[in-house]
Design a protein that fits this description.
CATH architecture of the largest domain: 2-Layer Sandwich
CATH superfamily of the largest domain: Dihydrodipicolinate Reductase, domain 2
CATH class of the largest domain: Alpha Beta
Order of helices and strands: EHEHEHEHEHEHEHHEHEEEEEEHHHE
Shape: globular
Mean pLDDT: 95
């Protein structure tokens, strides 16, 4: 592409769609032309405050617009595959929030269309672009800690989502743990071959009432022989708990929580410091900007896609295996599932 700027449209103006819009309007290489949402009549004041002049309740207007180079799909997950395929056939490059879908088969079929149409598809695993995790990845790839042996990920939300959200989320593994599945693959540099889950509902009975869980320990085996463990909780009373350690043959690399300040007060009553940053929009503020930069760079400057559709599909397969393990109480090997084409 010889263009120096991209004209972009956003499909879905919920919390994450609005966040992307706020970042895109400040990007020097982007013209954010239009935002689509089924409740577009409530968007006018917000859009005007960002200098966005067009809103619509019909996303197809974006796909029919010859000026639009790329779309951000931030609508509910159950709409993703149909919109991705329509966008690809309209020759629009695509950024899609995770997951691609709740069905491995549907995602596989969708990626085939994307491949046939030759457009860029980036999946929104923003944690890859967090400067802390990115530095850890670079150290591991550079051989600083030798061969990875153990990957440990802690990911705990500060408070549970609403029941309405729980009902449509796809469950903990597809909604929350999927970020950790992607991070495990990313940091270990190897595919997950087996998953075993211990999952329970300890925080609120609303999870069990909706066939979900709120607390889990997930054990992983990797193709390169390494092992991993992920612990998830929907409620950490002290804040958003996001930590990683990768232990290898020559040492380890650790990522700790981010804090509002590093101030520490020591008195006779104890040692006190800030709680971790409270939620994902605060903790991963920089990573959301960097993933946009990466997407734009891929299109304008032919850079490699850091997180493509296949990455999204791999994470979904692990999530489905995790669900199967939880339901059966058995370890699940990914090669017994639907094979990747």
């Amino acid at each position: 592409m010889s263009k120096s700027r991209l004209t972009i449209g956003i499909i879905g103006a919920g919390r994450i769609g609005k966040l992307h819009a706020q970042n895109l309007v400040h990007h020097p290489d982007v013209n954010l032309k239009i935002v689509s949402d089924i409740q577009s009549d409530t968007l006018d004041d917000w859009a005007a405050s960002l200098g966005i002049t067009k809103t619509t309740n019909d996303y197809r207007k974006l796909l029919e617009d010859d000026e639009i180079d790329a779309v951000f799909i931030c609508s509910p997950t159950n709409t993703h595959t149909s919109i991705i395929k329509e966008a690809a056939r309209a020759k629009k490059h695509i950024f899609c929030e995770k997951p691609i879908s709740f069905s491995v088969e549907d995602s596989e079929e969708t990626l085939q269309v994307v491949s046939e149409e030759g457009v860029v598809l980036q999946v929104g695993f923003n944690r890859r672009f967090d400067p802390n995790f990115k530095k850890a990845f670079e150290l591991i790839q550079g051989g600083t800690i030798g061969t990875p042996h153990i990957v440990k990920i802690t990911s705990r939300d500060p408070e549970p989502p609403s029941e309405q959200y729980i009902r449509s989320s796809g469950g903990m593994f597809m909604d929350m743990s999927i970020h950790d599945f992607d991070m495990a693959r990313y940091l270990c540099g190897s595919e997950v071959t087996e998953v075993f889950v211990n999952g329970v509902s300890l925080i609120d009975p609303v999870f069990a009432e909706n066939g979900d869980i709120d607390t889990a320990i997930i054990s992983l085996k990797f193709e390169n022989g390494a092992v991993g463990v992920i612990d998830n909780s929907r409620k950490a009373v002290y804040g958003y708990d996001q930590r990683v350690e990768v232990f290898g043959s020559n040492g380890s690399v650790t990522v700790q929580n981010d804090y509002p300040t590093t101030v520490e007060v020591s008195t006779e009553t104890g040692v006190h410091r800030d709680k971790p940053k409270y939620f994902f929009l605060e903790r991963y503020k920089d990573s959301y900007v960097e993933e946009i930069n990466s997407f734009i760079g891929t299109i304008l400057h032919k850079r490699n896609i850091i997180c493509d559709g296949r990455d999204g599909l791999h994470a979904e397969r692990i999530a489905r295996a995790a669900r199967e393990s939880f339901e059966t109480g058995q370890a699940v090997k990914l090669d017994t599932m639907v094979p990747l084409k």
